[in-house]
Specification:
Order of helices and strands: EEEEEEEEEHH
Radius of gyration: 16 Å
């Protein structure tokens, strides 16, 4: 997986809402990082959680299997496969697996939140890397639109 800006090519992830692999078991895996967003696959183990946190980016989470409890800014909501939750930037949130199987979801951050090469086997590994500054979104994923256009990363003709 590249750590540089994305190529202008299609990225295809089939069956994302109904057939994500529950056997992979990684807590977090970045699937794709773009100039303005990032797709991340997460598996929350039975009895586990993602951690009570606040991001400086928007986040949309789509649950594909399992059941859990979402707490967004102090309000609880049960979640299950097929549900979508949106967490605006600067909002406290926590997701807890309350079921007998892993809670699997993919999340879209806008802009990116993690290093494009991130794979965390466990929440603890992810926490350690974040605290050590090893899991940071790349600078190119946080630049204004105008800078990306000037750098030739965005061409409104769509031809590269």
């Amino acid at each position: 997986m590249s750590s540089g800006p994305p190529k202008h090519e299609m990225e295809y992830f089939p069956n994302m809402t109904n057939a994500l692999p529950s056997e992979h078991g990684e807590f977090r895996r970045v699937l794709w990082t773009g100039l303005y967003s990032q797709v991340v696959l997460m598996t929350v183990p039975v009895g586990g959680d993602i951690g009570d946190e606040v991001h400086t980016v928007d986040q949309a989470l789509t649950f594909t299997s399992g059941v859990g409890k979402a707490t967004i800014n102090g309000k609880d909501q049960d979640v299950k496969a097929g549900d979508l939750m949106v967490v605006p930037a600067g909002t406290q949130h926590q997701f807890v697996n309350t079921g007998p199987t892993p809670l699997i979801l993919y999340t879209i951050y806008s802009p990116a939140e993690h290093d494009p090469r991130t794979v965390h086997q466990t929440k603890e590994e992810g926490d350690e890397e974040e605290e050590a500054g090893k899991d940071q979104a790349p600078d190119w994923s946080r630049r204004p639109k105008e800078e990306n256009e000037k750098a030739g990363l965005v061409n409104t003709s769509g031809k590269y």
